[in-house]
Design a protein that fits this description.
This protein is 35% helix and 26% strand. The protein is an alpha/beta fold. The strands form two sheets. It has a seven-stranded mixed beta sheet, sandwiched between helices. A two-stranded antiparallel sheet has the order 6-7. The longest helix is centred in the C-terminal third of the chain and has 12 residues.
């Protein structure tokens, strides 16, 4: 598997991710990594329906994702999508190599401050991103593939 996009988007797979990103990066496989969603039959069904026809997909817990990545070949062009940077830090700490991270949608909740129109963070989120930066992984804010890339670290 070749990871072509690693994206944080609280909505996981939706029209923009399913089509814009998959076309721009010629994605052949979607991997959703979320412990809660992986154990929720309703969410599994809904997310599976959002995947474009002809594309592979898996909805996995963090532990299952690590095993999955270890077993896959490089034939697929994979888009990983998660709700939170904590999931990606966990993967990184378990040895999964991510070349870059796209932050598209971390939405407003009480206690979070606006970083961009679609990205809101609290101090814990910022601390997680700084740990990711310590691993040498660039992070960008970009809602769609056609948007200008903004270095996340200049905003936190």
């Amino acid at each position: 598997m070749s990871i072509v996009v690693t994206r944080i988007d609280e909505r996981l797979i939706h029209g923009q991710v399913a089509y814009s990103w998959s076309v721009a990066y010629q994605v052949t496989e979607f991997i959703v990594i979320d412990d809660g969603v992986a154990n929720d039959p309703s969410q599994l069904l809904l997310l599976s329906m959002a995947v474009p026809s002809g594309k592979r997909h898996a909805i996995l817990s963090v532990e299952d994702a690590v095993k999955y990545f270890d077993e896959q070949s490089d034939l697929e062009k994979t888009l990983i999508v998660v709700k939170s940077p904590r999931v990606l830090l966990s993967l990184i700490e378990k040895g999964i190599i991510l070349l870059s991270i796209n932050v598209g949608g971390m939405y407003y909740k009480e206690g979070k401050q606006e970083i961009s129109k679609t990205v809101f963070m609290d101090e814990e989120d910022k601390a997680v991103f700084l740990k990711i930066r310590d691993h040498g992984i660039p992070c960008e804010i970009r809602t769609s593939p056609n948007d200008k890339s903004i270095n996340l670290f200049t905003k936190i």
